[in-house]
Amino acid sequence: MFRRRAPAGICSGIGGAAAGQLSPDLSAGRPVVQSMLRELVDWPLLIGNLRSPKLFPSYCVDFLKIQTKEALFVPFEFNFSQRLAWDLIAPHVQAGGRWIVLKARQVGISTLIEAIIDWRTSLNSDVSSLIMAHDADTSSRLYKMFRTYTEYKPSWLRPRMASSGNEKGLNFKSIRSSVRVITAGSRVATSGDTFHCAHLSEYAKWDHPVEVMTSLTPTLPKNALVFIESTPYGLGNDFYLRWIAAKEGRSDYIPIFLPWYNDPGYTLDKVRVGNNEAYDADPTKAERYYVDRYNLNQGQMNWMRWMVDTDFNGSFDGFIQEYPFDDVSCFLSSGKPYFDMGALRNLDLELRKARHAVLRGEFDSAGQYFPGGDEDVTIWDVPNPAEQVAYRYVISADCCEGGGGNVVDDGQKRTGDTDWNYCIVRDKVLDVQVAEIRNKKDPDLFADQLFWIWRLYGNGLSPAYWPLMIVERNNPGQAVLLRLRQLLTQYKVPYSRLFHQGDMNKDNEPTLKDLGFRTQKGGDGDRLAILADVQRRIRLGKSGVLSQVIIDQCLTFIKDKNQKPIAQEGRYDDGVIALALNYEGERRDNPAWELPKPVRRSAFDERMMRQKQGLDKNRSGYRRNRYA
């Protein structure tokens, strides 16, 4: 009659000398046993003990079953990641709380959350719980897991159900509690209900996460247990923004990150492929960053390579998305990166190890550089007056409209934020970045800074031998170029050192519309071409970049659905564009360039131009344009 030892502490409410040591086997359901239990067991005290978070791990081992990959049903005992997650959940579970979990695949977090929902729902009356996933298959799988917990419990612990249940959930009639299963397919998944537990699975893959959460949030009371969990699925989506907000303490959600390498099960000895021993060589270029940074041992590296080959068809970035190392690179690898991610990660690691000495300061109104202040001017190497080399540097700039928005340089572009001004100075001789400016100053103030750093890297030479300055001519760029033209005239700097296109006017000056470099369609150079040069240099390890700003932006620079290279949603690209302009400026800088002479068009050329534009009403071209 008594065959099974009870978990320690759970049966403290059972009377009798043997009650604290043994638990009755009630699965047979015999009337005699049930009669004895009514006399021996203090049911309210027993259930009260089972509700204690301290006994939850024992509750899982003694009463819940999970199905293994071998189709066996075994007691649910926490693995490493589940123990780590529960340690972060347990302190808040009684009063209610909200958690957002960024996880590696198959670490068992969904199994743990379903167990918590079962524990909360089946041991308490009047509790409504929700299970919601991104598609019907995942919702069904989670519901099947929950049903397994219920069906394999001892009969005395299993609440009486109103029916056998269906794919939409379970209703425990005896305690008026229920579990509802929904797929997050529509914009309004639920309304009018109250849920005390919610498991929102693979949130990053939801089609309409913002709309669904807007309708769901009012249904969750303050003491509810809410779990948002997902593998990463790209930057800028709602899961990513919620994760960042939780990390920065700007939301009620507690962040939990579960990387794969903390799990001792993710390791592998040498694997034989055919007649060759594999996975014991030195790290590849793409792997070296992670092996060094996270101190992976040989077994972990073997397992990682085996997974890349077998599950991800050789895609290392695909592996990182499903099995993250950290909460940054996993998001970066889940889009379609434009640049070589392995090369960027290695460059990032090299810069972190090198720790180049820098000066951070600003220019005063007279153009003198001093440390401190706004610290928006960063200098790695100042020019040496003893090494005066003409045309040694190239300076490029991407401009913004100035003022307003977020001025915290955290790389995140939020609603209402303006873009950044960015200037990069490169040494053509050493092929390395030597300075940068990044701020949100108004165009005229940014132009002043550009001129001061231009003069600084002129290194005492005559202005005719200053670096080439190339500025993107977007809308704010025109205001910057207008101010630069005034400064060039004031300080007698030849226009040959400011990039421009087109003809000179009668005063040997370019018009404002011809100053700067146009990256938009129909501009001076193909945007794809100048970005391709950046792509090539980064892949070859010859970018010369020292700025963490540029590296971070390159990591979040992707191809959109039309294969157009753009910044990921919620990120910036000012550093990437400025770097592309800098390489283009180096290619176009001609030290022997003389000031072009004004060009006078012949009467024939003028007439042909007017006819082509449909301006000459007496020509056939006008009629063709008119009736086209």
Compose a concise summary of this entry.
With 628 residues, this protein is α/β, with parallel strands linked by helices. Helix content is 35%, strand content 16%.
Strand order of the largest sheet: 7-8-6-9-10-5-11
Total tally of structural domains:
5
Uncertain runs are 1-30, 593-601, 615-628
Query: Proportion of β residues?
Result: 15-25%
Distance between the termini: 97 Å
Question: What do the pLDDT scores average to?
Answer: 80
Describe the structure.
By secondary structure, this protein is an alpha/beta fold. It has five domains: 1-50, no CATH class; 53-258, P-loop containing nucleotide triphosphate hydrolases (Rossmann fold); 271-335, no CATH class; 357-547 and 571-588, Nucleotidyltransferase, domain 5 (2-Layer Sandwich); 598-628, no CATH class. 35% of the residues lie in helices and 16% in strands. It has 20 helices and 22 strands. The strands form six sheets. The protein has a seven-stranded mixed beta sheet, sandwiched between helices. A seven-stranded mixed beta sheet has the order 15-14-16-19-18-17-20, sandwiched between helices. A two-stranded antiparallel sheet has the order 1-2. The longest helix is centred in the last third of the chain and has 17 residues, at 475-491. Mean pLDDT is 80; it is low at 1-30, 593-601 and 615-628.
